Amino acid sequence: MADKKYLTVAIQKNGRLNSDSLQFLGECGLTINFDFKLYDRKKSSKVELVCVRDDDIPRLVAEQICDVGIVGKNVFLERKIALEANVATPVKNFEIIRNLGFGACRLSFAVPNNIVFEKLTDLNGKKIATSYPYLLKKFLLENNINAQIVYLSGSVEIAPKLKLADIICDLVATGNTLLQHDLREVYCILNSEAILFTASELSSQKQLILSSLVGGPVDG
Ligand code: PRP
Ligand code: ZN
User: Fold this and answer.
1) Per CATH, the architecture of 105-191 is what?
2) Is residue 180 lining ligand 1, measured as CB closer than 6 Å?
3) pLDDT digits (tens, 9 = 90+) for 23-79
């Protein structure tokens, strides 16, 4: 459980959001020690920094082990759907505090260059590989598309080559990974960027730490 006197902030351990998250927190006034490993406690600003895998951050915040987290909106929404659907202990209070303006990417369908794609209904009957099965399932349901979802936790771009799937639904930032794998982006289902979020009513003490950290009044 998060220390009552400290605001515990979870950020990505490594990967594309790590250094931008640290830079953002530095701009918020924290003295950032870029050498720290997984944990750092800032006595003067009453902030604890925790570095973990980004997929774990929503659960750690949902379980109030951490107070707030920084992840891509894609990870936030995916895990939000999963955690809200948990029958045993559904989590209801996920709330975006603010968009952070870095880590821009999109969740898109991409197809092998030799495959024709003209309209969304072309997805019917296809196998689609993704690391975002909840967001994909929601999109398919909302658009009345009947397709099979194949889950891969990473390297999704290899799925068509391995005949695991016909199409992929994966993150695109620069587009280089798609290019390298002879895939082309055909339809974006989500625009994403890094966000700061919480999943609980923070105590007034923690609200104060948060608003002095990120400025202005903060809800949640
Ligand atoms: C992400 C994403 C794409 C790639 C997109 O993968 O899943 O594969 O980056 O970036 P680009 O458009 O700039 O090439 P990541 O590197 O996080 O690895 P993973 O696929 O193993 O998760
Ligand atoms: Zn990838």
Assistant:
1) 3-Layer(aba) Sandwich (3.40)
2) no
3) 999 999 888 877 777 888 888 889 999 999 999 999 999 999 999 999 999 999 999
Every domain of the chain and the residues it spans:
7-103+193-215, 105-191
Tell the burial category of 44 from Cβ atoms under 10 Å away from its Cβ (0-12, 13-18, 19+). Answer: exposed
For a pocket test of ligand 1, which of 177, 184, 185 has the largest count of ligand atoms closer than 8 A to its C-beta? 177
- 185 CA from centroid of ligand 1 (Å): 14
Distance between Cα 174 and ligand 1 center (Å) = 9
Helices 73-84 & 133-142 angle (0-180, nearest 10): 80
Topology given in CATH for the domain delimited by 7-103+193-215: D-Maltodextrin-Binding Protein; domain 2 (3.40.190)
Tokens 């794609």 locate to 117
